Amino acid sequence: MRQKDKLAAVAIIDLSAPIEPSPSELPEVLRTDLRYADHAQGARDIETMLGVPARLLRDGEGWAVDEFTRLGTHNTTHVDAPWHYNSTIGDERAQTIDELPLEWFHAPGVVLDFTAKDDGDAVTVDEVDAELGRIGHDLRPLDIVLVHTGRDAYYGELDYMARGPGVTADATRWLFDRGVRVMGIDAWGWDAPLHLQAERAVERDEPGVFWAAHQADLPYSQIERLVNLGALPPDGFTVSCFPLRIVGGSAGPTRAVAIVPDDP
What we know:
By secondary structure, the protein is of the alpha/beta class.
C-alpha cells in the first residue's frame, strides 16, 4: 500500500483565540500587553552584546523578539487546573496545571450546541443529555466535551466577559461521572457571567451559588475562551489542547485545535 493511502487526510481547525495587546480601555487585571522589538533593534542588540556590526548581518537586520509585559494564565484560551477552583478537591490537595495527566488533553471531542441560550441561562443535566441524544453520541471516558454558545463572536469586545450561559454544577458533575475530565466552552467562563452569579449569590445569601460549577469539588479541567466551535461536526474529531507546563500554576494557555478527518 502506498504511504499516502496509509495516512488519513485531516483538517486542523484552530480553536484558540489570538494573543494580542488588549484595547487601552480594558482594566489592568484583564489586560494582555506585549512589547515588540524589531530587526533594527535586534541589530543594535547584537552589536552591543557580541560586537557584530549591522554590516555583517543579512540586510543589516538582527533578530526580532517579543516580550509579554502582562499575560495572566487565564487571559486567553486556557486550561484550568483543579487548583484554580479550590486548594483541596475531595479532601486532597488540588492538582496544579503541571500535575495533570497528558492523556486528558488529546482525546475524542464532542460539540453540544447551546447557541440558542441567552446570557445567564443555565445549561442543565437534562439539556446536556438531550443534546447528546440529538446528535447520537454516547459519551466515553476522556471524551472532551465542548459547549458551543457562539459567544466567540464577541471575543475582544469590552462586554465579552458579560456574555454567555452557564453550565450548572449538576451538569458538570453528570459529565464527570461519565468519565469526562476536560470540558470546554466558547465563552469567557464555564459558569454564567460573574456579575450575574454575584447578584444571585448576594440575593440568596448562601454558598454554592457563586462559581458553583468551578467549586463543585471535582478534579476536572475546563477550557475557556475557545473559538470556532461552529466549524466542527458534532463528533468524530480529536481535540488537542495541551496546556503550558507552568509549575504550581492554576491554569495554562493552550493552542487548542480540532483534528477533523476529511470526508472519504
